[in-house]
């Protein structure tokens, strides 16, 4: 910060469709950041990529505002943060290229789970359905088919992040 000020932020949903049009995907939360005094000049956004494996080379910061999305090259990337300089306020979040290589830890986790539990299929995409608040929904598999494990078995519908 270049002076005193009150910084307010909240997490808002990403527009995955909009990111995808630019060949990007979220790599962390999207923060809506405000500072009435305009004294905030640099952001340190947290990341969990492993620098030694080259995962940080695919990171940039999306600046989401009324006119669209602007992608900002980091000033610096540390072991824990992506650092950018800013001049305006709205939503900022770390993104990475859609075709970036998978995290080696993710691959190792899949290999370990395969050894422990056998072949598993993960659904990485959200289903194309319209959910409504205060309704009960059930995800089920074929009756008596105990080879499929659905997790979590129960979850609360969050209307705030419905589009996310």
UniProtKB/TrEMBL annotation:
It is found in: Cytoplasm, Cytosol. The keyword Thylakoid does not apply. Residues 1-164 form the FIIND domain. Its main location: cytoplasm. This is FIIND domain-containing protein. Pfam families: FIIND (PF13553). It comes from the Eukaryota. GO terms for cellular component: cytosol. PROSITE patterns: FIIND (PS51830). Keywords: Cytoplasm. InterPro entries: FIIND_dom (IPR025307).
